[in-house]
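Notes from hallway chat w/ T.B., transcribed later so I don't forget. T.B. wanted the structure written out for a chain they're using in a teaching module, and asked if we could keep both sequence and structure tokens in one place. Agreed to drop them here.
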Amino acid sequence: MTNKTLQLTDRLYEYLIGVSLREPEILRRLRAETSALPEGNMQIAPEQGQFMALLCELMGARRALEVGVFTGYSALSVALALPPDGRLIACDVNAEWTAIARRYWNEAGVGGKIDLRLAPAAETLAALLAGGGAGSFDLAFIDADKEGYRDYYELCLKLLRPRGLIVVDNVLWSGQVADPAVHDPATEAIRRFNAFVHADERVRVALLPVADGLTLALKRPTS
């Protein structure tokens, strides 16, 4: 028995997947195709996608945001969990990777739920605010350039309703955030972001050791 999070060995991880993962075939195929790309390590873990889908259902989410789409695994996980009238606005700048995403979204029958906007995410989020979108979203997922995390977080927080949830990926950054010898811009940006969210009284926060680290920030009703 232990009173801190277990370190996941390969054997324990395979057991975890074997007794918990319920991955639809279309998600499995998307994950397999993405893993063959040179950038395949950017894809989220399957258990993370399942966890995000569970969060959507627990919240009764209908309107969601995603900052950083890549090949669409996280967006597909969320869209499958949204109700028929649900909507996900997905922000990215890469037409090649998101073309793979669109193909799988359409095959899964959720293409109509996902509004892909190919433009810098900060511009898209700012436009949503300017269009009266403040307080109208239930969930936001941030998984993009690490130096932009703080800006995306602030914009998403304004767009979320009270008790809306921001989910932020890569906050443990392969453990490099805890290595004092590492000082590259992305690692430093994540360190600053983690410290900021920890002190942010506008949200209730939990950082979970899921995949590469996942922060959950629940917007307080008074924010």
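Follow-up for T.B.: The radius of gyration is 17 Å. Might be a good example for the class.
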